[in-house]
Design a protein that fits this description.
Chain lengths: 325, 325
């Protein structure tokens, strides 16, 4: 941690109470003048303070933007998010991470943007990513595993986001196969899992995560309004995007570590517990066509097992489902 | 075809003989002044002419570089190479096509470079791509097929290059699984097949092809000298890179069309006929380890069938083999 991150840590812990300059000076092993310098550094980053002589400093407001220092402080990870690039605007965070990946950057690197001007969704769709309203984030993964298991990573990522949203906001979020996160039947998060292959081997995966955080109802364009929702709409409160991003990355690293060490079984069980699409009548569309039937569960590779109306059981590796019951 | 391409076509057909200005003017439906203008356009592109009054024009020499007009004339394809970008220098033609692919450019687009400053080989290796010596080319494919079949495309690309080299130069080239092209046991061409996935579906593939064309023995760095060879070394002659690139793209489109319409069987048979690594003792290295045994053949997905010394038969989807017998 840098000195200004340590300072921020102290002030956050004080929870709006004053912390004296002397205490800070002792804790951080810096002079009183240096304390004042670091307070100003945090001011530049968008934090606001009250400074009262003999009382010290107290934190009034945190920046509205996603901030690097706050993210690093809130992360409980070894590698995920420890290299984080936060941009005001980019065409697509997926494209940014793709470039980093080809340059050899290591696993866990993250790009976050306040705004994406050409955000990508699944099936070549656009992902609406207006400034300041969401978490638009891409994470580089370099899993040591066979290509056959990529559907497992798709499920794992959705599970991590769903769990982080639930624990951080208390909202009752569920997962629609493979990895849409829904609240009350409306989509609150979409995930785009893109991978690069050499011959038939995985080189890397990029998990793109888009969470609608601080959208008002009026913020949605007409076509999204009936099918999308945000954490602000669901909780009635503004949600701190920096802390939520840190919670997602922390959850993701924990599940990913567990997955690498213990395999997919535990992930599958956790995923099934939050699924809203199992044991229901569904319609799956993908590049190979449309299948109707009942979603029975997921198999050991992460594929969806569907029982068709004629009784035949098939496995579906990717696609989009709609609930028909 | 543009007018200067038509003109070039006439002069190439004349095979070094004079073609009168009047004949050109009639054929191309342009004025004598316009003929002169198009001759100068070709001069700018590196062609050299003799112009003699009352006799007309004859082609003396073609440019030493890979040229767009010559490529378009020599191609016998519908789509492959019809969009071709020819660069003096680029870090990597794979990277260039990746960018085009993400922008939505359609199948068959090609980037060729005189030089790659950071040419990529398999397994993160460098590919030595000095200016003017080879064909450094990447082609965008958007196959409508399951991910499981990507090894088939790897084989198909190697087959196309091997067949084009054989028919264009007469050199006795063979294929080492999956797609190295060898002449007299030395590598003359390497192929890098990279693919992009969304979830578990193929978005596109980029076939990177590097052919050592006009290397002298002295052109090779010490470490490549014992294992690499070029068409110039093997034939004793300079080989026209533009025409060879066109021959490769033509062969590739023909095989790819056949594959899309009739499936992999015919490709597999053609591939096996040119293989130098079947029915021999081999060692395969890939991300999962090292296996020794005899290469028996390829299966319906394009994977290599290996019989281990203990009699067990396994299939290998990707890797690198060395001949041990």
């Amino acid at each position: 941690m840098t000195k200004h991150e340590e300072l921020l840590h102290m002030l956050l812990k004080a929870d709006g109470q004053f912390v004296s300059g002397e205490e800070i000076s002792k804790n951080l092993l810096i002079s009183r003048t240096a304390v004042w310098k670091h307070v100003n550094k945090l001011r530049d980053l968008g934090y606001e303070f009250e400074a009262v002589s003999r009382k010290g400093y107290r934190l009034l407001t945190k920046p509205d933007s996603i901030d690097e220092a706050g993210l690093q402080l809130a992360l409980q990870t070894e590698v995920f998010g420890r290299k984080a690039i936060i941009m005001q605007s980019t065409p697509s965070t997926q494209g940014e991470v793709q470039q980093l990946a080809d340059e050899g950057v290591s696993e866990g690197a993250v790009v976050l943007a306040e705004e994406q001007t050409n955000g990508r969704g699944r099936y070549g769709r656009r992902w609406y990513s207006p400034p300041g309203k969401g978490i638009w984030m891409s994470i580089l993964l370099r899993p040591q595993q066979s290509l056959r298991n990529t559907p497992q990573l798709t499920l794992l990522t959705g599970l991590a986001v769903c769990r982080a949203i639930r624990s951080f906001t208390g909202v009752d979020a569920g997962i629609k196969w493979p990895n849409d996160v829904l609240v009350n039947g409306r989509k609150i998060c979409g995930i785009l899992m893109e991978s690069a292959l050499e011959d038939h081997e995985l080189r890397y995966c990029i998990a793109g995560i888009g969470v609608d955080v601080n959208f008002d109802k009026q913020d949605y364009p007409e076509e999204l309004s009936p099918i999308a929702t945000s954490l602000q709409i669901e909780t009635g409160k503004t949600v701190d995007r920096t802390l939520l991003a840190a919670a997602i990355l922390t959850e993701l690293e924990q599940l990913y570590d567990m997955y690498q060490k213990q395999g997919f079984n535990v992930i599958a069980a956790l995923w099934e517990a939050l699924s809203v699409s199992l044991h229901r009548d569904i319609k799956v569309s993908n590049a190979h066509g449309i299948v109707e039937g009942m979603a029975l569960g997921i198999d050991s590779s992460g594929a969806l097992i569907v029982q068709k109306k004629d009784g035949e059981r098939i496995t579906v590796f990717s696609g989009e489902i709609s609930l028909t019951d």
